[in-house]
């Protein structure tokens, strides 16, 4: 089975590197700058689960793709999805499966519109990783999970084939029969944590020390209610876990969106927060919710950033 990892950033570099380490057939789709960097330094991964140094990982530029791949793994940011789809389109053949690892749900709709419903699986990953200034993948915590499955539920021959390829790689892989539910539960948590820590410019623990647990629970409960309205009410274990994490005293946790704001980078405001708000039931209270305030805050940041760039 031939895998195309779209990019060799924090996600693609980590999971693609682990698959290569396990002897799988993996090619990275790279932009020219990242290709030049990897040709010089190789793919370097630093992780609590063992470091990797892959001197010459297989890679290709978009214009050089000549044949389709079996599985295309997509982990780009949502605001780059249009250009990302364009770059890997030549690799999509009649039997290609696309496995996206983005947060939220609207990327699924865009991938389906471009490539067809039958080609798009559901997927998510649980990992904290980043690229440093030298292009090394830094794995920052003890989670490196990847879940995937048919969006309609159940198992299939192609999911089983992917499971066989993931077996033995040094990350936790789960072939889920409830991947759409799993994705909604992650979206609820990511939107809550991103909205809260970005709005407050603080960690979960600092917000708790300020007596803000009620604010944290308000945004989390609102996100849960929106998911329920769309037919994906978070299961009790997910609710219990989310409420505990969102109010944990002393927690240093901040969302990656908060980190993006701190470094002046683009954010996925529309994809993570705005799209969730757009799926809320009609006739809501005229008083702005915490989620709505967080979204306006993020859009104001985007406007400020755009103005500074001109």
Description:
The chain is α/β, with parallel strands linked by helices and 310 residues long. It has two domains: 2-177, NAD(P)-binding Rossmann-like Domain (Rossmann fold, 3-Layer(aba) Sandwich), CATH 3.40.50; 182-309, N-(1-d-carboxylethyl)-l-norvaline Dehydrogenase, domain 2 (Orthogonal Bundle). Helices cover 46% and strands 17% of the residues. It has helices spanning 10-21, 32-41, 81-88, 106-115, 157-166, 179-200, 204-209, 213-229, 236-246, 256-262, 269-278, 290-309; strands at 2-6, 25-29, 43-46, 52-54, 59-60, 71-74, 97-100, 122-131, 137-149, 172-175. A five-stranded parallel beta sheet has the order 5-2-1-6-7, sandwiched between helices. Strands 3, 4, 8, 9 and 10 form a five-stranded mixed beta sheet that branches. The N and C termini lie far apart (46 Å).
Our estimate of the beta-strand percent is 15-25%
How much helicity do the residues have? 40-55%
Give the structural class: alpha/beta
Overall geometry: globular
Number of helices: 12
CATH superfamily of the largest domain: NAD(P)-binding Rossmann-like Domain
Question: Keyphrases for this structure?
Answer:
310 residues, alpha/beta, Rossmann fold, N-(1-d-carboxylethyl)-l-norvaline Dehydrogenase, domain 2, 2 domains, five-stranded parallel beta sheet, five-stranded mixed beta sheet, 12 helices, 10 strands, 46% helix, globular
